Amino acid sequence: MTKTCPQCGKQMIKRYENRVLLTNPPQYPWYWWCECGYTEKGGADRGILMEDFYYQQWEEVNKG
Length: 64
Fold this sequence. Notes:
19% helix; four-stranded antiparallel beta sheet; elongated; alpha+beta
């Protein structure tokens, strides 16, 4: 996932912050970053619900 930098015109990349919001599901904040130093607020990606996580584990254990 990329975006064009408004300052230098190069491609920006999506970088994750070094934190997790402890909600259910967890959220992972991220921002746009360019090598010229320009940054732009991005948003937050959502993880999976605990119920879905446990269900995936249950499916893995109970493969037939």
